[in-house]
């Protein structure tokens, strides 16, 4: 599936979860509900996927985890915060760099209108 088509499908699932639950819940709640919706939509999802770091030609398990990886193509970094900080964007950009993937979605569920809570990061 092409990246734009896949991201469109993902965003539809994000809107569905946000419409059902609204803002104010824990990130972990949105994560399991979004995983369910993505699976229901026929997408392959890996939740809390370990992300090793290669440093000095050594692979290190540093405890990093991707919230959701969809179809092995798009990283979803979920938040439930008052506002997205620059460090949140930097975190997703680092995950993209470490994986070699091109597209990530930074999703903040703690917003009144979901359209203001989605940031698309392209590498």
From TrEMBL:
Task: Show the InterPro entries listed in the entry.
Answer: GxxExxY
Which protein is depicted? NADH:ubiquinone oxidoreductase subunit 5 (Chain L)/Multisubunit Na+/H+ antiporter, MnhA subunit
Source organism of the structure: Lunatimonas lonarensis
> According to the entry, what is the taxonomic lineage of the organism?
Bacteria, Pseudomonadati, Bacteroidota, Cytophagia, Cytophagales
